[in-house]
Amino acid sequence: MGNSNPKSDGRFLSNLYFRVLPAQIFLLLLTRINNIVDGLVGSNFLGPKAMSIIGLYSPFQLVWVAVGNILVVGSQVLCARYMGAGDLKRTRGVFSLDITIALAAASFGLLLSLALPAPIALSLGASPAVLGDLSGYVIGRGFGLIPMVLGAQLAAFLTLEGQDKRNYIAAGAMLAVNAAMDLFFVRVIKMGVLGLGIATSLSQWISMIAAGIFFLTKRASLKYSFKGIIWKEFWAILKVGFPSAIIFFLTSVQSGLFNNLLAVYDPTMMAVAAMSTYALASMIFESVGKGVAATGRLLTSVCYGEEDGRSITSVMKTVFTKGLLITLGSAVITFMMADFVAGLFYADHASKVFKLTADAMRLGAAVLILETIAAIFSNYFQAIGRTAIVTVMSVLEGLFAMLPVGLLLIPRMGVHGSMITYLVGYAIVALCGPVYAILFWKRIPRTLSEWVTIPEDFGAAEDERLDASIHSLEEAMTISSEVQKFCEKRNVSEKKAYYSALALEELCLGIIKDRFEADKKKHTIEVRVLHKGEDIFMSLKDDCKPYNPQERADFIDPKDDSPKSMSIRLFMGIVKETEYRLTLGINVFTVTV
Predict the structure, then answer these.
(1) What is the pTM of this model?
(2) Which domains does the chain have, with CATH numbers?
(3) Are 418 and 275 in contact (CB under 8 A)?
(4) Residue range 466-471: average pLDDT?
(5) Exposed site from 169, 278, 293, 509, fewest CB < 10 Å?
């Protein structure tokens, strides 16, 4: 039997979190998979020298990853907020602006790569022995900058559209094409590292096309329109996205400095090759932790747009418990697979580069946990607009928490000094979140909502809202009485209270009867009722297949004289506004009375 007095059980957001999480992990892997494939093919067929070249190129790539990240984070947070607020026109304007800027920025990067490959290689620290190869790799990878930057934007928006499967398809296509082309260019026609770069670029074009096709279909709610661009949102995108992107710009500088220190410590370049290999191999495990944080940011942005402080706290509870447990599992696997991963790149287990790579992987397991905690706080503060603390954390992570320790340890300890540097640096950055909360309240926070610095006056007060989770017909039939009781406590007019309660019950019953049994999965309707001023605001969210109740004629068919249809038509006559939107694959139907 269902609960005769349905309340929100808190599982809806938790389930949504784990529904979105895999796509966010894949999204982070999307720009990293190619480097991993290049590293595997390069190290096995061209030797450690290829890994050194990939490592030397990394700072230049990080610059364009940073540009893409500014746009991805800024536009995704803004669009999630506007979706949460139900403003589709503004959402589309930001989408169009983001795509336009991404294309322009990446095109500039392509021109630089083709016009100045040797100067770029020299600025990255290329010695005469690798200058030619690195210059070729710059050119080869340059052709992929447009799809790399633009593809990251499209993948992020596919998640907002609830089209995560397309991201998986795009990632799979990219991986297959890159692996095949790497082997063809390197093994068959002997193009060396230039072939690695060209293969990567080709695969990125395939991935971008696979992701972008959806936005040309009628099902896409986000449509590109140059005329629809809201240019003034450019500064908002920068404001939200730039603090986290500082990490990539500063990490680019940090990476170049650390590579030079490692080269001085070990002129054979084995230390550089080992750290380059660690950086590539750890991307898979690191993406899990970063995905945990990014999913929290995305859901928090939607809740922030809805001015729902309770849901924000619920999301962060999931992140700090279940999300961190996933990260811990990833860290354990990283530690246990250290020798295996190193062996994928270097078959000779007795070699110096193999041993250094395996040691870096084992120490990297601890780094992963601290890095994830830091990322959770940074991503969260981005979502709620705390740009000052995000900037501080980014500057510390990108350079100033790392550089002093690195300058002291790397010249003396090489790879092991680099890993200790990361441990100390991420510990400092991770502490910024709790310290900020203490400074925000000027005391030790007492609850999770205080630790995540949600002001007491944010959104609706507890007595202004009613929340319920509906799982069955019985619960749907009892929601009406709960809404009426709520309205009576709020001194809402008897007529408005009656029709609001009746319509909400019928909408819940309609969703359950029409779609709960459309598949074999369990579903939930999350109901939220707010009373503010003169209005009753009702929101129904369900995790069934995409569906718009406003477009179903049997709900408001004028020829249907059934009590159900008549009550809905009567309700539609007194409401001020109704709206449907699809957000993160979730149906959201809102009504204002």
Answers:
(1) 0.73
(2) 31-231 (no CATH), 256-459 (no CATH), 462-592 (3.30.565.10)
(3) yes
(4) 86
(5) 169
